[in-house]
């Protein structure tokens, strides 16, 4: 991938925006050219498209940015080749799966801009809806001599499995007669045994150099309530057994997985070939292909660690805007288009690598720059008093809604005697190269008048609490007189009597280490103490009408969004989405 860096350093801008590669497209194009999956129909006689993919999450947590890449790959390739992508839940583990996760996953996929309706038919599936078929195929494997019920303890089974340098040992139950295994398997299904008392295993090769082929488990006993099937089942298929069968049942052509499943592919193929031999499926069978997962710097994407942060209240829930979850990114102010752009830029590769967080943030800036209307916000307020401005005078100033789109019109806001400016826009004793307010210096109040600083007020501790100036009435921006004033400084402001006082949350990266959990590190030691700061800011009065999820560029500060949860009519709460420039550049 052209913009991936193994050391986590920031790629050059030109490199980050270079056209991405996607080797999966080449595979699909070759299959289309050969007609490998052409002229197929499903069991109802409906014609099948030549490309069928699937996005198959387990509903045991919230999706994160890594899943967003998989969504864009699975749905995007199907779209690009005129095919369809199935939305499927691999819900084979009842102890970890909940309806809450099903609901948020569906919502996240839709929000990202993808759907599962094709030719007027909805393609939303659950592995649990195929449990009867999985069981039927398992019985066939037993009778055909390809599977057996093992009654070893979990400890003995693990010990006899061997390791990468030592072959495994056959179970003493490996040669159990097929009829005996079949009887035990049916009794397992009937609920006669406790969890772990028996297990169904494939009979393959205990000496295989691939550990996944050493008689892998197919079914285990688990007396647990399932979110979809209730208490109908007390035996559940293993993921590696169910996954290829789901693909075949759904006529999937290209089963796209991340690299950790590469060593599982031989078993994927084994299951499908045995099922085809039994007459359950026809060739051509689904083809599994692996691609590199997304490794993003300054982030943790382990479901276990994300759950830990939620449970330990390190963050404010799954949708905390600092989280890499899709719901968190959405609340932070990321757009579906920016995430799709990011995934397009990083491409699809066979090799693992690290993508710097700046690439994701850059895609967001590029998307929001064109979309976001502008506004003014003072985040660190300091009072500015225009001494020669009439007390009751209010003068309307205008500015474009978007500087590159004049058709979007102008916004209006008043200038008055007392204003709020940024603390950093005044220095009593200026440093070299400082062109903003200091005694005797002139600056332009952006979209308003030129003013000259005359001094400041301080509290008993010597802290500046107000700045004084005089204005030049003929210097207003947009008037002929403004051309007579040449000043180097240009600062923003809001009227203290008209500004909207609002809560603003300044979010930054959750971790200060680019690889917070690499090499066994305790990721909690890398938490960024400045990842969230809550302030009271003063905003241009028009911001009062901001709706939840509405995004703006606050001039000079960055992109902000009205929080989708805590904003109420007339009282928006703003989250900083991203700064205008990358402040993490080394």
Structural class: alpha/beta
For the biggest sheet, the summary is:
7 strands, mixed
In helices, the fraction of residues equals: 10-25%
Q: What share of the residues does DSSP label as strand, in percent?
A: 15-25%
Number of strands: 29
The Cα radius of gyration reads 31 Å
Name the features.
single chain; 586 residues; alpha/beta; seven-stranded mixed sheet; 13 helices; 29 strands; elongated; disordered N terminus
Layout of secondary structure:
Blueprint: H1 13-16, H2 23-34, E1 52-55, H3 65-80, E2 84-89, H4 99-111, E3 117-118, E4 121-122, E5 124-126, H5 131-143, E6 147-150, H6 154-160, H7 178-189, E7 199-202, E8 217-221, E9 235-237, H8 239-249, E10 254-258, H9 265-277, E11 287-291, E12 295-296, H10 303-311, H11 326-332, H12 336-346, E13 354-355, H13 357-371, E14 374-375, E15 377-378, E16 381-386, E17 395-400, E18 410-415, E19 418-422, E20 442-445, E21 450-458, E22 464-471, E23 489-491, E24 494-495, E25 500-507, E26 532-539, E27 551-554, E28 558-562, E29 574-578
Parallel strand pairs: 1-2, 2-5, 10-11, 12-13, 14-27, 16-22, 20-23, 25-29
Antiparallel strand pairs: 3-4, 6-7, 7-8, 8-9, 15-26, 16-19, 17-18, 19-24, 20-21, 21-22, 25-26, 27-28, 28-29
Helix pairs in contact: 3-12, 8-9, 12-13
């Amino acid at each position: 991938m052209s913009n991936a860096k193994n050391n986590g350093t920031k790629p050059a801008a030109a490199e980050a925006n270079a056209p991405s590669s996607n080797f999966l497209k080449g595979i699909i194009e070759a299959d289309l050219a050969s007609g490998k999956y052409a002229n197929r129909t499903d069991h109802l006689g409906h014609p099948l498209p030549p490309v069928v993919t699937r996005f198959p999450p387990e509903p045991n947590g919230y999706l994160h940015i890594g899943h967003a890449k998989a969504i864009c790959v699975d749905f995007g390739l199907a779209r690009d080749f005129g095919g369809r992508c199935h939305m499927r839940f691999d819900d084979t583990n009842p102890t970890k799966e909940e309806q809450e996760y099903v609901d948020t996953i569906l919502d996240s996929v839709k929000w990202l801009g993808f759907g599962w309706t094709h030719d007027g038919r909805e393609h939303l599936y659950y592995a649990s809806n195929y449990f009867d078929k999985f069981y039927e195929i398992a019985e066939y494997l037993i009778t055909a001599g390809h599977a057996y019920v093992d009654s070893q303890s979990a400890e003995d089974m693990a010990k006899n499995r061997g390791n990468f340098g030592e072959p495994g040992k056959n179970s003493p139950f490996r040669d159990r007669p097929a009829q005996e295994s079949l009887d035990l398997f049916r009794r397992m299904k009937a609920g006669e045994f406790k969890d772990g008392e028996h297990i169904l295993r494939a009979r393959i090769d205990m000496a295989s150099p691939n550990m996944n082929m050493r008689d892998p488990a197919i079914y285990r006993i688990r007396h647990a309530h399932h979110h979809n099937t209730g208490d109908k089942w007390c035996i559940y298929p293993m993921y590696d057994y169910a996954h290829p069968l789901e693909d075949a049942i759904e006529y999937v052509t290209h089963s796209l997985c991340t690299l950790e499943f590469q060593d599982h592919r031989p078993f994927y193929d084994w299951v499908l070939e045995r099922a085809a031999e039994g007459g359950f499926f026809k060739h051509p069978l689904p083809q599994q292909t692996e691609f590199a997962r997304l490794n993003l710097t300054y982030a943790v994407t382990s479901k276990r660690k994300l759950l830990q942060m939620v449970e330990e209240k390190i963050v404010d829930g799954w949708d905390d805007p600092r989280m890499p979850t899709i719901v968190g990114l959405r609340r932070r102010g990321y757009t579906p288009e920016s995430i799709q752009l990011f995934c397009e830029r990083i491409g699809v590769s066979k090799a693992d690598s690290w993508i710097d967080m700046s690439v994701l943030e850059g895609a967001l800036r590029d998307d929001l720059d064109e979309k976001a209307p502008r506004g003014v916000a003072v985040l660190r307020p300091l009072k500015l008093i225009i001494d020669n401005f009439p007390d009751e005078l209010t003068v309307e100033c205008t500015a474009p809604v978007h500087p590159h789109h004049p058709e979007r019109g102008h916004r209006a806001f008043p200038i008055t005697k007392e204003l709020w400016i940024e603390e950093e826009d005044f220095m009593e004793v200026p440093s070299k190269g400082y062109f903003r307010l200091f005694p005797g210096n002139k600056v332009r109040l952006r979209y308003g008048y030129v003013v000259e600083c005359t001094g400041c007020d301080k509290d008993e501790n010597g802290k500046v609490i107000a700045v004084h100036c005089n204005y030049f009435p003929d210097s207003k921006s947009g008037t002929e007189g403004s051309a007579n004033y040449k000043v180097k400084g240009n600062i923003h402001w809001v009227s203290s009597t008209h500004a909207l006082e609002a809560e603003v949350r300044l979010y930054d990266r959750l971790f200060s280490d680019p690889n917070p959990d690499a090499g066994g590190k305790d990721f909690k030691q890398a938490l960024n103490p400045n990842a969230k700061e809550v302030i009271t800011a003063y905003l241009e009065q028009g911001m009062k009408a901001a709706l939840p999820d509405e995004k703006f560029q606050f001039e000079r500060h960055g992109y902000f969004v009205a929080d989708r949860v805590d904003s109420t009519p007339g009282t928006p709460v703003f989250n900083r989405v991203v700064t205008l420039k990358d402040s993490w550049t080394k």
